[in-house]
Amino acid sequence: MQTDKVTQCEQALERLINRETIRVDADSYDEITYGLIEREAGTVSKGYIKHDREKFKSIVDRLSEHKAQKKPAKPRQNTLQRKLEQLQKNVEDSGENVKKLEQLLQIMMADNLKLVEKCKELELENVRLSSGKIIKMLSDRPH
User: Fold this and answer.
1) CB burial class (10 A; 0-12, 13-18, 19+) of residue 9?
2) pLDDT (0 to 100) of residue 25
3) What distance in Å separates the CA atoms of residue 93 and residue 9, rounded to the nearest whole number?
């Protein structure tokens, strides 16, 4: 079973190198790492590949070879573009949320103003009573 997992990791590495992935979006990474290989393999847990163990030598060597051949490149344009679009969407969503919250605040303030006016009316009505006694408000009672 150990060999099966190592084989799956080797196959996953080749798929990542060829950008023909099954589990990981081929445009979601700029650099191949052990964690990315493990995710693409699918059946191994995080931290499974140990670069200092003999059974992973083929994976470590192939990855090192690939990194040596590959020029240190800037992140791919589509990755940067996707991140930029996501940030712009977050800004738009935040703006919409602010507008909704401002509307709710205005409604709450208007409702509170109506309540204050109603309280004043009730207090004046209470003073106008012939007895002159002030009737306790329901809100004054202990809960």
Assistant:
1) buried
2) 78
3) 40
Quote the pLDDT of residue 81: 84
Sequential DSSP letters for 32-94: --HHHHHHHH-SS-TT---TTSGGGHHHHHHHHHHHHHS---PPPHHHHHHHHHHHHHHHHHH
pTM above 0.90, yes or no: no
Determine whether 13 is exposed, middle or buried from the number of CB atoms within 10 Å of its CB (0-12, 13-18, 19+). Answer: buried
**What tokens appear for 76 in the block?**
């791919």
122-to-4, 40, 138 alpha-carbon distances in Å: 81, 71, 12
Each residue of 37-48: pLDDT tens digit? 888 888 888 888
**Helix, coil or strand: residue 122:** helix
pLDDT over threshold 80, residue 97:
yes
Q: What is the pLDDT of residues 4-37, one digit of tens each?
A: 888 888 888 898 888 888 888 776 777 888 888 8
Q: What is the CA radius of gyration of the chain?
A: 33
Read off the DSSP letter of residue 134: P
